[in-house]
Known about the structure:
The protein has a nine-stranded mixed beta sheet, sandwiched between helices. By secondary structure, the protein is α/β, with parallel strands linked by helices. α4 (290-307) links the parallel β6 (283-288) and β7 (320-326). The model is unreliable at 1-32 (pLDDT under 50). The chain is built from eleven helices and nine strands.
Amino acid sequence: xxxxxxxxxxxxxxxxxxxxxxxDQEPADGGPGPDTEVPAAVKACRxxxxxxxxxxxxxxxxxxxxxxxxxxxxxxxxxxxxxxxETYRAYDGKYRPLSNHPGCSVDNLYYDKTNTxxxxxxxxxxxxxxxxxxxxxxxxxxATGFIDGDVAKIPGxxxxxxxxxQPNEDTTKPIVILVxxxxxxxxxxxxxxLPPGTTVNxxxxxxxxxxxxxxxxxxxxxxxxxxxRVIAVDFRTDIVPGIDPSTNNATQNAAGNIDHxxxxxILQSLIKAVMKDxxxxxxxxxxxxxxxxxxxxxxRRLYVEWRSGLAGSINPFPQVSHVILGSGANHxxxxxxxxxxxxxxxxxxxxxxxxxxxxxSNYSQTYFHKPLNGPRDLFATPxxxxxxxxxxxxxxxxxxxxxxxxxxxxxxxxxxxxDFYVSEAASRxxxxxxxxxxxxxLNDYDTSGYFNRGFIANHFGxxxxxxxxxxxxxxxxx
Length: 478
């Protein structure tokens, strides 16, 4: 993989060591055998897997017994009793079946063209009543000519997602599923511009910029123009229970934060439904912030279901083309650390998600990351070589999955961060050769003023800055 220097710095290294990976199937069942001619990129990834395997074995870590199932702390709830605002503590932090999930709802969607009586009725498919509509957060969105979209209707998927109208689809391209982050909705992926005279909120990340005066096309608009089919999952952060809006975020969840137990099952269902509906098409995942680990976790859970022989399950990896991850907390998040320390002080999903992510400044593997990343990130890029996933070979249907991370560079590596939530180390995946870890510059922030008047413009820059957008589209085309 070549190192590019324009508005970003790509961090890619190939470690040329050779070892032996674990196997429970013959290579003929999946990827090519050792004597088969393989592309250089696949060869580099296999060498990295072998080297990492040797490193892990030298540390006396047993790969064969490393669990990739749901961690005990997050075991799926079994009660059929619906959650109420008073009983949130019994649910937050646990995986929720869709049959008992308040977020799996298609009621009152702001992008639903049939929604005329709800509290957020359809206007132009953009005004969600909060981030893109409320003046306190920089709304109403002053961009015009919003891209057409409506509620996604996919057989087998009961929850909410927005599908953008595609009048000229190129069916040779992968179907793109967009995965938004915490507190947001599908408008994460759409153009935004502040009303004239609105002050940009630059204090949190200490970045000085003037908001855009002309709306820039974002991923939704650009992907549709490039003839992709595009579906944006909606985790319904607007209906998160267990909060008291009259209190602050220190002890409650006024921002409507969600954890993996809330979000992963919804995305898991969407990926499965799309793949079953279009079994001959590839699927690409593009995710931001919390969505990064949700996307990876949904793939893990689908794979575990398939490995267990669950009726109707699928192995997702033969159909995944790209996994593009912007500003993700693959190894920690700032709100775990003082002064926030939300894992210790907040009992709602605002706290449980932070416990799952761990510390940005002093990271040690969390119960959530353990099955997802595996020992020393060995499991973090399943099927990047077309063969190996979660400690086993022959798992990929000979399909190579391409992985990318995009994150803003640190002011000073490891000590001084411009991104409010993550860092270079928190976001990168330590499987060089199997993933392209890319760093954008300190100037590549989102200048649109999206999300509370640019409150975390650096954090959104990985996918909403011009540089981040260009990189994402380039990687998707590889």
